[in-house]
Queue: 3 jobs
Job 1
Amino acid sequence: MNQFVQRIANYIANELFIKGLAESKTFQRFAVHTDRHITKYKKEGFEHVNAQIDELHKQATRAAHSAASGAASATTGASSSSAGGALRPPTRPMEGVPGFFTALGRVVRRDLGLDKK
């Protein structure tokens, strides 16, 4: 019996609430205003993200092109390109706590200008 009364109360409250909001000019203006702002911010957000992606693509293309031209000039220039001018894959960093502290030390040395590079 309690569920029945609760369902009737919910139905009546929902009907009054929904019909009251649907007929309210203030709520309609609020809804239109909110929708307009959300649409505008979504569009601006997508445009901003697309601009950032385009800029990232340009930078990556420039970096790849300069690395490729640098590698090509290194292989065509001197016969001692295997002495350190060749590109090679990065080495895997140490794992766990020792790896963390090693990386932290490198970053601190680089920030303080103590790095030998």
Note: The CA atoms of residues 41 and 47 lie 10 Å apart.
Job 2
Amino acid sequence: MALGQYHLFLVMSAALLLLNGVSVAATPEEKIPGGWTPIKNVNDGHVQYLGSLAVQAQNVNGASLKFKSVISGETQVVNGMNYRLVIEALNGNNMGKYQAVVYEKIQITSFVSLLG
């Protein structure tokens, strides 16, 4: 029997969109349910990982982008978390900026003690 199951559901936006804007930082305490809040540290490993996953998902759909980094982003508290990310990626020899929306929901379905 496992300690628990950890489910991570990512729903990628229908397409990455060319974007010109950038966002500023805010603290987690400023998050408003349903509203978008700038990500304070886009260099956080988890944020960069989500950006990389967004590019990989787009490549599965026929693109051939190479992820460079997330350069800005916002979060939205829903039944989970939306991340609206501005991503730099190479498309051939051309660097481009793209926007991806990633939905993340963590759901623990079981957690039991294995002792006694």
Note: The mean pLDDT is 78.
Job 3
Amino acid sequence: MACRICLNPYRHKVLRLTSQLLLHPSPAQLASQADTIASLTNQRNMLLHQSADERQRWQAERDSWDRIADVLTAKARAVHEPAVRDQETQRYIARLEDDVKASRRRLADTQTRLSTLESEMSRLRPLLSMQATILRD
């Protein structure tokens, strides 16, 4: 019982000292605590932002790998299926034929313009030679 009595005054003294600090904290202590809380809040926000960025980056990488796997699977399937290869070849040939037709049209247009310009030049040649003789006189 003597020990309890010894601890009791000590306990009361500690409670009185700490309760005084809790009830009336100093402005410096409040400012320090506010700075610490703000710093911790900023750190937490930064960590949350970094975590979200990492999740997005990993998701984008997973999506990229999925697309690559799909393309490689489709190509592997296409190589092994002759009907698919035949269709691709026919599409390629059709594209080439369209290109040839377009080139032939452009060639025909160019030849028509060239013949028109040559005929105009042949009509202008006598006029130009007459102007040259008139200018000399």
Note: The two ends are 147 Å apart (CA to CA).
